[in-house]
Structures are given as C-alpha cells and as structure tokens.
Specification:
This protein has 223 residues and is mainly alpha-helical. The protein has a single domain, classed as Tetracycline Repressor, domain 2 (Orthogonal Bundle), CATH 1.10.357. It has 10 helices and no strands. It is elongated. It starts with 9 loop residues before the first helix and ends in a 17-residue tail after the last helix. This is TetR family transcriptional regulator. Keywords: DNA-binding. One of its GO terms (molecular function) is transcription cis-regulatory region binding. InterPro entries: Homeodomain-like_sf, HTH-type_TetR-like_transc_reg, HTH_TetR, TetR_C_25.
Length: 223
C-alpha cells in the first residue's frame, strides 16, 4: 500500500501495516501484531480506530481506492499511447492489495461479500472510463460484464493458489509474480483478440434473452 503522502500520519501507518498483516495472516491477525508492525502500542491502534473491525473497514476502503486509482491510471496511460509494462515491473508494490483481496475472498461472510460487491461496482466505473476513452468496447449490460470480469479474475487467482500453493504463503510478491507468469499473456490475448471468429453464438443467444435494463445498456461497437 502507498500512503497518500510521503510522510504518512500515524493513522495511515497503522492502516498500511494492517493491510499487509491481514494480507499475510488473514483477518484473524491480532491488534498486537499490527501494532508491532506499525511501531506503536496496541492502545494507540484502538485510540485511532476504536476496534479491529473499524480498522478492517478502513483497510477495505483504502485497498478499494488504491485498486480504482491503479485501474484508472492504466486506462489514462493507454489512452495517451503510453506503455503500462512498468506496472508489471512494479508488481511487488501491488502484492499487499492482491493478498488482501484474496483474504477477503477466503474470509467470506457479509464483510467479504460486501468487499467483493464494492469491487464489482468500482469495475463498472473504470470500465465505463475505458469505454469513454475509446479503449474498451461497450456492452449491452455493463454491470453484468463487470461482475463476470471481476469474479472470473478472482476465481482464477483462487484456483491458482489452491492448486499451486506458494512455498511461503506470506511471500505475497511470489504470488503476484507466479500469477503474471502463468496468466497475463493468455488473459491479454483473449481480451485484445477475442476468441470466436464469428458472433453467431451471440446473435442466436440474444433471440432468447430479454433486453437488459435501459440504464445499464450501451450501444455495442460494430465489428
């Protein structure tokens, strides 16, 4: 996690330490361990956040904001004709966010579900940004597409870790590097080139399904 300023406040330092500790150990991590990571006392953690649940909620907000920021910056860079390969080189920087997201998936329950639903809602926003920038084809049902993209990406990550668990689960950077090595090329190829050579399947399917709500549909780009 990157704090908003070069000299983070004590509250930001505690929050960033909590994101990393939750990512490594899960949400059962103790306030004491977070305080030790942040270089403060457990009492100071409670002073700033009131409870571990409130700290968890603020970590959720910070991680979601960082994901939104990274996605929108990537879209802006691509729209400006810039390369985003530098983001791959800095993959370890995003490792705590990825670990945190995976822990939220594993944790489940109302809090985890709320976190994932917010990820999907945010994806609708930055996908719309991509459409407006001319980088992403519009969809007949933008929320449905965003949900599919988020859940399929997260499901792929969960399967990768379940089937090929890292030697050290706390090594979040290794998880990110393994994911980039095995998954990014086929994912980018699929998104940029497509899969089918004809749209016949879509046309046939549209004959049997109702139109999406008008406030979610945009006119798809013609091929």
């Amino acid at each position: 996690m990157r704090s908003a300023s070069a000299d983070p406040t004590t509250r930001e330092r505690i929050r960033d330490a909590a994101v990393l500790r939750f990512a490594r150990d899960g949400f059962g991590a103790s306030v004491r361990s977070i305080a030790t990571d942040a270089g403060v006392s457990p009492a100071l953690v409670i002073h700033h956040f009131g409870s571990k649940d409130e700290l968890h909620a603020e970590c959720d907000e910070a991680v979601l904001a960082e994901i939104r920021k990274a996605k929108n910056e990537s879209i802006d860079e691509l729209a400006a004709g810039q390369s985003i390969l530098h983001r791959f080189a800095a993959a370890d920087e995003y490792a705590p966010m990825l670990g945190y997201v995976l822990r939220s998936l594993q944790n489940g329950g109302p809090v985890g579900q709320t976190f994932i639903e917010q990820m999907i809602e945010d994806a609708v926003g930055y996908t719309k940004h991509g459409v407006e920038a001319g980088l992403v084809k519009p969809s007949r049902d933008e929320p449905a597409r965003a949900r599919y993209l988020v859940l399929s990406a997260l499901g792929m990550l969960m399967l990768e870790i379940t089937l090929r668990p890292p030697e050290d689960p706390a090594d979040l950077g290794a998880i990110v590097r393994d994911f980039l090595t095995t998954s990014y090329f086929p994912m980018i190829e699929l998104y940029t080139q497509g899969f089918f050579t004809t749209r016949r399947m879509l046309d046939e399917y549209l004959l049997y399904v109702p139109d999406p709500p008008q406030d979610t549909a945009t006119e798809p780009a013609s091929d």
